[in-house]
């Protein structure tokens, strides 16, 4: 239920801005009619086109979430950046709401074989945790850096925030089930499930360490050729 509530919150964030933009388009058209007493055909067509663009974006958001929850039937080959784009689309509005800068560095865009929706879920969990820590700790100039590369026969994705790091003695405890220290309204299953997905389902490694800026999660997956 907590995960469902968080996902509904992400959908709400995704729709709030386009709904405001749609309202702005209709209010502008109404103001021209009421204040000026007239509106040209060109202005009407422009408003319709703007509205259609916004509605198409909202429709795509529904498809993104529906595809995200679709159960993977088999392993498929996919580019890392495809699923990163999907994950970012899911939470981008929430990042913008909290003025969190997201920097993406692509050194090498590898292809891997696995369950792509599950891979997106891992990215969502890590990005959402980073966002929560930045917000909870009221970090000035909050930032998440996502670096995509490879080493030898492995794809490597690093996700680093500037929230000050994970403040526990044994940092790997964050992957234990129901570990919720410092996480408001958390269930403690997100990182636990992420580690299971990466290491049990995709033959990879999910690592974490503290840096001079904050926490860095490293997703290592065998690369396909």
Can you put this structure into words, describing what you see?
This protein has 225 residues and is of the alpha+beta class. The protein is 51% helix and 20% strand. It has helices spanning 2-36, 41-69, 80-97, 116-136, 190-201, and strands spanning 76-79, 101-106, 111-114, 143-151, 154-161, 205-210, 215-222. Strands 2-4-5-7-6 form a 5-stranded mixed β-sheet. A two-stranded antiparallel ribbon has the order 1-3. Helix 3 (80-97) runs parallel beside helix 4. The longest helix has 35 residues, at 2-36. It is elongated and about 70 Å long. 27% of the residues are buried.
Shape: elongated
Class from helix and strand fractions: alpha+beta
Number of strands: 7
Tell me the β content. 15-25%
Count helical runs: 5
Low-confidence stretches: 183-188
The whole-number mean of residue pLDDT values reads 82
Strand order of the largest sheet: 2-4-5-7-6
The termini sit apart by 40 Å
In helices, the fraction of residues equals: 40-55%
Oligomer: single chain
List the helices and strands and how they pair.
Elements lengths: L1 H35 L4 H29 L6 E4 H18 L3 E6 L4 E4 L1 H21 L6 E9 L2 E8 L28 H12 L3 E6 L4 E8 L3
Parallel strand pairs: 2-4
Antiparallel strand pairs: 1-3, 4-5, 5-7, 6-7
Helix pairs in contact: 1-2, 1-3, 3-4, 4-5
Brief overview:
This protein is α+β, with helices and mostly antiparallel strands and 225 residues long. The chain has helices at residues 2-36, 41-69, 80-97, 116-136, 190-201, and strands at 76-79, 101-106, 111-114, 143-151, 154-161, 205-210, 215-222.
């Amino acid at each position: 239920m907590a995960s469902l509530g968080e996902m509904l919150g992400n959908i709400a964030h995704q729709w709030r801005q386009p709904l405001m933009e749609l309202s702005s388009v209709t209010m502008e058209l109404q103001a021209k009619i009421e204040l000026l007493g007239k509106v040209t055909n060109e202005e009407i067509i422009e408003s319709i086109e703007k509205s259609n663009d916004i509605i198409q974006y909202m429709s795509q958001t529904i498809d993104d979430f529906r595809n995200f929850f679709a159960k993977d039937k088999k392993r498929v080959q996919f580019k890392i950046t495809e699923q990163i784009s999907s994950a970012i689309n899911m939470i981008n509005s929430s990042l913008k709401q909290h003025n969190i800068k997201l920097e993406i560095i692509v050194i090498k865009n590898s292809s891997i074989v696995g369950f792509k929706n599950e891979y997106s879920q891992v990215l969502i969990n890590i990005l959402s945790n980073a966002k929560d820590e930045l917000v909870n700790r009221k970090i000035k100039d909050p930032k998440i850096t996502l670096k995509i590369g490879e080493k030898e026969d492995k794809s490597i994705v690093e996700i680093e925030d500037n929230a000050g790091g994970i403040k526990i003695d044994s940092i790997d405890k964050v992957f234990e089930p129901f570990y919720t220290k410092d996480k408001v309204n958390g269930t403690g299953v997100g990182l636990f499930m992420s580690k299971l997905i990466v290491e049990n389902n995709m033959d990879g490694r999910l690592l974490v360490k503290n840096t001079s800026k904050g926490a860095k999660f490293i997703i290592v997956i065998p690369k396909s050729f």
